[in-house]
Amino acid sequence: MEDKEINYSEKDEPKSLLPFLEEDEKEDKAGQFSVAGEHWEDYKLEEELAGGGNMGNKDPSEGVPDESDSSMESLEHSLGETYNIQPMKHTDRNCIFTLQRNLKELNDLAKEKEFVVQKSRGKLNTCQMRIKMLAKQLEYVDMEIEKEEEAGNVAALSRFQAMHRRLCMELEKEKDFELKIALDLEEDMLEMWQIEAEQGKYKMLHEQLKKAEEELEMEYQERAKVRIWKEKIAALQAEENQRSREKKEEEALKQYEERHKKLLEDAKRNHEKAVCFLRKSMARVREKNAKEEVKNQEHTERRIQAVLSLKNSITSNREKLQTLQVWNKANAFEEKKQEMKMREAILAEGGNVTKELLLHKRLLEHEKEKQAFRKRQKSRKIEIVSKILQEKAFIHKQKKSQSRTKAVKAGGKLEDSLPWRKKAWQYIEKTCKGSAGAVPQSWCPPSACSSAGEGTASVGERSEKILQDVLCESSEDEKERDTTLVEPEFPGLWSQECDFHKVSKEEMDSKQLTTSIGEKEIFVKKMEEFQIGIFHKKIVSGRECKRDTFYSKPNCIHFKDFDAGQTYKKKIALINASYSVNFCRLVGISESLKDFISIHFDPPGKMSAGMSCEVGVTFKPMINETLEGEVMFMAQTGSFSIPVKCTPKRCILALDKELIDFGSHVVGETISRTITLTNSGALGTRFKVQASAGDSGTCRAAKASPRRMITRHFSDHIPEEKVSNSPVMSVVEKKEQICPDRSEKMTNCVAEGEQRRTERSRSCGFIEQLDQDVLSSSSDLDTENEHNLAEISHDETPVEIMLGKVTEGEIEPFSSVKLQVMFVPAIPGDVQTEFVIMFDNSDCKPLCFSAIGVSIDVPIWVANPNIDLKICMYDRLYQDCVVIHSRAKTTLCLKFEVCKELSKHMELLPKSGYVQAQSSFSVQLKFLPRPSLPEDAGSYFHKEMRVLEVPVTILIVDKAKKVNFTVHAIVTTSDLEISPAQIDFGYCTIYEAVQANFTLTNKSILPQEFGFVGLPEFVEIQPNDGLGILLPLESLTLDIIFKANKAKEYSFELTCKSEINRQFKLSCKAVGVHPPLELSHSLVQFAATALNGVSTATLYVMNSHVSVNRFTHAVPRIGSGDPAAVGPTSFEFCVPEGCPVTITPSVGTVWPGKKSLIRVSFRPTLSDQLIREEAVRRLGRAAAAGAEIQERRKDDKRKGKKLSISRQQTSQQLVRDGGSKHLTALSGSEQPTAEELNPDSDAYMAAQAFLMRNFSGRFEKYVIPCFVASGHIDEKKGSENLSCSPCNTLYLELHCPAVAPAVVVTSDNGKDTVHFGDVAIGHRMMKRITVQNISPEKLELGFSVLNPNGPFLLVRPVGMLEPGENRALIISFCPDEDKQFYETLDIRTARTNLTLSISGCGVMPSTVCSVGEVLDMGYVVAREKATSTFQIQNTSTLTLRYSIQLDSLSPTRDRDQQRLPSFLISPLQRTEFVGTQNYNGLSVFSVFPTEGEILAGKSQDFVVTFSPDHESLYYSDRLKVVLFGKRPAHVVLLKGAARDQPMFVEGGVPLDVPVESLAVTLPTSSLEAPKGELPEPVKSILLVLEYIEGEHSPVPAMTELRVGAIRTTQPASKKNVEFSFESLPLLQQKGFTLGAGKGTVESGQVKLISVSWVPPADFHADDPLLVTALLTLKSNVEERYQILFVAKVVSANAPTE
Known about the structure:
The chain has 1697 residues and is of the alpha+beta class. Helices cover 34% and strands 31% of the residues. Strands 13, 15, 16, 17, 19, 21 and 22 form a seven-stranded mixed β-sheet that branches. Strand 40 (1049-1058) and strand 41 (1063-1074) form a beta hairpin. The longest helix has 147 residues, at 203-349.
């Protein structure tokens, strides 16, 4: 920041600096300024006239009549004549104004003196009349005294004597007053005569002034005429313009009416069209809504069916899991049994048991791996063959559908795929020769067959043969197959030996080849440019943007469900997503898309940010295949691409489930289930549902006798053991053994379906844990019967699972078909059937699904054997209806039993009943869980999972068979827990709301609604007013907001109700406090404030406590305590440390009924610790970079040297490593820590600027406590003498958002404070502040208004700031008082403000001068010099620049001499300080030094030299010590006297004038007296002595004379001076006494001669005494002085002047 000081000269000095000049200079300056102001007004008037003339010469507007033209021409002519008048000159006008002012002042002075004289005469007349009246009263009193003396009346006599004395005293006073008035009148008359004489001198000037005033008045009149003419011209022009405007308005009105009429007609027509269109639209909307409603109903039905099927599947899976568990146990038992047999056999043979068992296990694992490998091998072969057959069918179909021209074009594309197909068929042919015989030689590849036009039937037969050959291949060809399959799909792309690629190149068109090569070269060049870095980086807000600068809508160009031969068009929009201007151009498209897609793109040129352009894409497919690629573009910042995807119409078929589980059903029932086949593609096809290949699709496992136990599988003759993990897998294995010729594809489908079901059964593992207890309870069953599995032949098994009516049909695009599967159990046991869905479309794979069910043979059965009561709550009643069906032909008696553990909680009504033949019976199930259910239920209830499974038994009387069904339920509690149970708010004031938190927990696994009801008016619960829903086991934190409405003790309960009307209580208590003070605002929300900016808010602290009468109003108190006393109340705001908030005043006292203004300021700043850490981080990076550069330089130097010995290389490497470590350590040691950083350092300032520019903003909340205490705060002790209660504490909440500044200060290291320091009063200092716009936008700056009467001034503001621009502000400081000044200047932008703190101290330049107002140089011999020194000390705190000025050298002295002569002015009114001057033109007085500086606390010596060149007693001058060229600090009057002779006499009353005569007088020494005659007296000296009479101890009248000898440098002169008085006896006779009648005075000394006088006895007081005596001085020459002694007697009571 640059400091500039400006010192104004007298010419450049503004009006504000005029008070520092002299009073006379003030008047002259003011006069000049007023004259200049008047002249400026006249000059402006002349310019206006000139402008008016020019305006008058302009052509008038159109349509003006001829009369106005003539009138305007006449006015212009007269106006032009007036311009020929010559205006008075500026100097003449100034002279007139000056003379006028001076004469006016003289006239005013004369009038004033005349008024004073008249007033004095009136006072004198009044006084004389008073004297006469008193004289008459005195005569009357004398007469009365004589009468009373004669009468002897003592009392009256004394009274009249007192009156006589009083009248005498009044008469004397009046006479004295008359004398004084007379003297004053004489003086006033004399002054009035002098003024009249002066007026006579200026009489001629007065006449000239009158003439000049007349001329000036004439000039003003002429100008007034010009103005009138000018106004007339303007009025005429205004009338013409008004008429033209009226015409235009009429035309515009007509046009508006026509347009309005046309708009009304158009609106009617449009309204009719809109009504018609609206009716049609409403009809379409109703139709659409009806369709949507039908769809919604269908969707709802589908969802209901899905839910029902899911429920049934869950039930069946549970039973299946139980069966699987039993089978697993049986298998494990058999394995252990077989192992024991093997152990016994091995031990019997004497072998190693462990080794043999290990070998046996490895053999079994090897066999399993071998079987799995064979399966994978078969599946891969099937996939290869199916792909080849699909391609063949696709080519055949394509050739039929397309035209020959398209077929020729497409055939060229497909020729490349023939070689690998031939190779694949050759491989299949070779592999099939060994096992199934040779392939017929008439067979050819499918491509050749299709080209030769063979039918599809032969193709199908051949494919079946090939499929059988593939399935029968041996394991010897596995290695060859593996090596063949790793070959690529297109061998020409990888293998150089294949010549297919060469053939395609030869057949390629030369033009296409050249274009592709050219495009590739261009693309390679662009990639090289990109790698080199030619593209511009994507920089956004100072950072490199890594995202794409262009994006498209849509993101992907997708041509979906296209038909070959059709043309499709799409448009996409490319949007410039960068923050700068960019452009793009088309590079090309992928090779695979060039034959089908064309791009229509016109490059738009440069695009601004956010702009978009359109790209047209045309797609004309020739083949029915999926195509993928991309469209490539190039932008200024790099390349980008848009993906392209083309998908033809296809079938996408899926089943909603793959397993239908009918569950357990009684023989004789009919159960129906549905499965949904969905086509989500755009191509339809025909389907056919059929059972798996073979006559039998059903396998069954039933119970058999113990004699039919299957033990042959574990014999020693069979080395293999097939262990099945699921019953379905065992069934599949049986199928493979029975039907070895079944299609392998069907087997694969079954295996895949079974694998999915196995995975699904594993996912239900947690249900097994729940069923273990139930299964263990049924341990009474015969385990041997469980393990005996009987096989029933397929021929004897009836069909129990069959298809419904729909077995085949057409499935449309985007539709679904429901297939019905029915289960009619006939024989007890498990039933499973596999189904396959075949499709006509060769691209669609067959879909498989299976259905399973269990048949039970019981005379009665329960329609729902698993009754699920869902989730139940304690102490709530739940009911359900159990329907029991009977297939018996007689009536059965039934009894219902519940286990004893749950008899208290569950009940079946009725407990017994009869069911009729082939009928049903309903039983009511009631479940009321008690809280003791977990203890009562025992093993039926899982406490952790809260699951209850209750077995219910139905007993058939007279029969041993039982029917069981299970009741499932999840029992949970309905409790809501409130924590804590009691809340104490403490002391709460009525002006605040206190918040407390509590947690509401749902202990149930069901969601529960809750609500707090019946809340008091002073309580609020949030969120959602205390209402809501709690999810299972969820905890919700709620806020209680308590706001006391008056001072008392609160105790209340809050009630929370659940949806089942349960109530939960929460106890609360608090104490309401009414504090004696209150805040006008408890919440202050500051606007977003920039860093280092200031936001200010105001509020009031109010004391409304004026009375303790609690019956009329609420009084301040704590709870139910005593009211607070009425009186002054103090407050104190405690701002926490580190809070960027300032509160002023923070401490104060508020009287009752008053309020105190509080100002809250928010100034966000960066934390010092954060700045220090950033600075250290930056220093560390800089040090690391420097160390790295040094290491590189050292490495370069060392690599330049050739080392011959490897040992030297090793040592040098060690030295280099050690040196780098030392350098790193040195740089680390030199780096300062965060605490050592100086805030004024460059690193600190750079870190601060970096953080400020990258500041992202923050939001903070502060709560400021305000403590309240009764009483008045003592200024000395502060608040220590007061005790405050924490209950009365008020709180002020502040919301403080801080944002990054848009404008920052870059000068003075970024400081936002401008400190001028100490500046002298009246002196002006200027500072320059540089600001920068760091925002990306153009800013318009505004400035707050500084105090217009203050010392600060914004000299040069800034209007606009471009992004990143720096501009300078200039602020000046000119104090006018001796105090500290502080102001803030807000630099305002559209969003944030930057606050500059401006401070400065005005210092009064205080100096002390060693001399007083007068510096008397004494007497000096003419043409000699005398010097004197005085000192000025600087007692202020700033350096003072001074200059010495003498009035005799003043440039305005000549002007000042034009005033009245000094002898005409009384001594009190004289302002002439320059006395006699030298004849030689040189200054009498000179001072050294004349200018310089005095440091604070220092002093400066000044030497004054007095050098007169002739004799005079009235040498004088005035010396001014001026500070800063403006303000006089000291004024010293310089006096001196010069004599031609080295002696002088002084004293008495001066008898001559202090002005030297202009006549040239010879020196006294040259006038020699004639011989014999005494010399004439040189000078007369008057000594006046007044003797005071009437005092108790009379004192002689005293005066004195001084006789001096001047020290001279003349060598021949006599040094001493002798003096003597003559006529001493006469003087003594007259009463005069001299201290010394004669004597000698040494050189350079002064002799004081005292003179006293006492009136002699014969002295008459009425006549003053005058005595003359001669005083003779002798040195080189003799001088005689006439001493006039005048003595008089003065009464002590007489008034003195």
